[in-house]
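Give me structure tokens for this 611-residue protein.
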Amino acid sequence: MRYLITFTFAVGLCAMPVRAAEPAAYGVLVYGATPAGIAAALAAADDGETVLLVEPTARIGGLVTSGLSHTDYHAYEGLTGTFLEFARRVEAFYAEKYGKDSQQVRESYRGTFGEPKVNLAVFNAMIAERKTIRVKLQSRLDSVQMKQIGETTRIASATFISANGERWTATADVFIDGTYEGDLMAKAGVPWKAGREGKATYGESLAPDEADEQLQAYNFRFIMTRKAENRVAPVAPPGYRREDFLPLLKVLESGQIKSVFGYPSGCLFKAHLPVLPNEKYDINDVSRGLVRLSLPGVNRDWPNGDAKTRERIFAEHVRDQVGLLYFLQNDEAVPKAYRDEAREWGWCKDEFQESGHLPPQLYVREARRMVGKHVYTQKDGEHAKGDARAVRHADAIAMGEYGNNCHGTAHEGPRFGGKHTGEFYNATPPYQIPYGVIVPKAVENLLVVGAVSSSHVGFCALRLEPIWTSLGQAAGHAAHLSRKRKVPVQQVPVPQLQSRLHKVGSATMYMSDVLPGHPDFIAVQWWGTAGGFHGLAATPKGSPRGKTITGQYSETYPHHEAELSKVLDAELATRWLTLAKQHRLPLEKLPKADGQITRGDWIRKAASLQK
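Here you go.
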């Protein structure tokens, strides 16, 4: 569970009801209706599978419907597949409701900044369109029944506990763990880790010298407003103690805090910019700030904790973070200027109505991490030697471009005025993510798309919702291939999986000028994943990112163009012929570099010759 136990939820308001007389056996069972889990269910259903999507809480969508509305990406061209479709639908929602030229459409930032209630409505609509998906809410995983097959194992069935205490069991051919915590994976006996590896384990410069149990800290992503007619005043949370917040007064007296709400620093609550539609703000932890919302250490027991343990940790975060705001708004000891500013802000009357206008989920940035077929590390996101592009993965099933990002894993000094340690923000070029990060070593019918196989540092690059969503989409298609070919997930033919992903607009590498929907998208993704665009530009000096647009958002990454209209020169033609030979293409049928043939001409022909 990821909810405060005192919250009450109206199921009918949050997600599609379960249809009557549903079967107990499915082609695919997805546990965890996070964006990754939803993407997995959608992809499997699109391939013709019957899917059961089980969510332990009363609300689908994970953090994307629980306050994380300010999507974490840098360049829009890095959004592909299901997440891009989702964003486009969010934008269309605002266009239909308010008009295509409305302020709400502009503030949705091409659909990547949706209000939680809008994000929820869009996810529900996407699921409703797939008639073979069944959704079961408020059903917590109780146990997993395993079957031994030689040296490997299979999940035979899973048993769940409904909100009313009733136990029920479902079987499936393939299971997908979409939870942030890896709960299904753990009960299936898959090896996992929580905490940080030392530098020597994977040779990561961002890792600590020695391994420890520290986790990236959690906080809430509050949704707040200053709009009077939609504002709800916060109340003191259960267990509020004024004395916990009195040390904050010294920090305020120092003059280092310029405002209660601000962006990106010099404040207590980060109010992300640009603003969300309808004058709402996504509130977050202030990176490297004197006062933090994130609470490292408090979350140590969350990954492997039972329901009561997680409820306790959830409540501790409510008491601290809501308590901080309540103190600032109401305590007479707070300087008037800060108190008056704080009182301008409140919860949104039209959000999270079933949970007291507070987000129903805590921002679980990191919990368990599977030890799978491929452990993704810092090196997987670094530049290939002398190249503008990152290390190539021929078995890539997704791509990312956010970089390794950690808000801290421990805290030194006082709660207010101390500092987080273990914090880093590392820019990388766009990177590829191999199939092995979602595949266990031994359980032959399980895929893991939230608690993916990675080091702590590596996970800090993969833990963003657009990336998780891409991994979920790949898992849904992989589950179908596993069933269709009657092979374990470890033996799914990755080239066929990549082909399916490309056909539905999901990228396996970043190409800044050939995006989903482009007539050459499939061919360019195939050739790029084969290695055709590596080595075309040298490693740039400084940050690999494009020019900043606003906040964390930037223009396209330079040196990642296909340049299809550019004439194919002899040197590149020679390299591509060598690569074509490796892929067993009939060389005699490929165009010659005659000074007129373009890169696009050559790639289109090569793609047509694939066997």
